[in-house]
Specification:
Belongs to the ArsC family. This is ArsC/Spx/MgsR family protein. The chain is an alpha+beta fold and 120 residues long. It is 40% helix and 12% strand. It has 5 helices and 4 strands.
C-alpha cells in the first residue's frame, strides 16, 4: 500500500494516524517532492476509476491561474488535465491510497481510509 501525501495537509496527517493506529504497512510518497509522471497519474486514475478533473484541486491558486474550471471534460481533454497535474502536482487531490488489491481511493475521510484498509 502506498499513500500520496502533502505533509502540510491535515487530511493526509489524519490518514497516516489512522493507518498507524490500524498497524497497516504502507509507503509514504510526498508527491510534491517525488512528482508522479504522466504515466503514474494515468495508472492511479485507472485504479481510482476516475478522470483527471475528478482529482484536481480546482480551488488552488495555480488552478485559477491555469483556468482549469473552464477546461473541457471530454476524452479529448484528458491529456491536457494529466499534463497539468504532472506539471503542477499541488493540484492533485490528497491523500491518495493505492491499495494492495490494485485499486485506489482518495482518502479524505476516515471511511475512505478504512475502505482502503479492507481491500485485499
Amino acid at each position: 500500500m502506498e499513500i500520496w501525501i502533502n505533509p502540510a495537509c491535515s487530511k493526509c496527517r489524519g490518514a497516516l494516524t489512522l493507518l498507524d493506529a490500524e498497524g497497516a504497512g504502507y509507503t509514504v510518497r510526498k508527491y510534491l517532492e517525488d512528482v508522479p509522471s504522466a504515466e503514474e497519474i494515468r495508472a492511479v486514475l485507472g485504479r481510482l476509476e476516475l478522470e483527471p478533473w475528478d482529482i484536481t484541486r480546482t480551488g488552488e491558486a495555480e488552478a485559477k491561474e491555469l483556468g482549469v474550471k473552464e477546461w473541457g471534460r471530454t476524452a479529448q481533454d484528458r491529456e491536457r488535465w494529466i499534463e497539468a497535474l504532472r506539471a503542477h502536482p499541488k493540484l492533485i487531490q490528497r491523500p491518495i491510497i493505492t491499495a494492495d488489491d490494485g485499486s485506489a481511493v482518495v482518502a479524505r475521510s476516515e471511511e475512505a481510509v478504512r475502505d482502503a484498509l479492507g481491500r485485499k
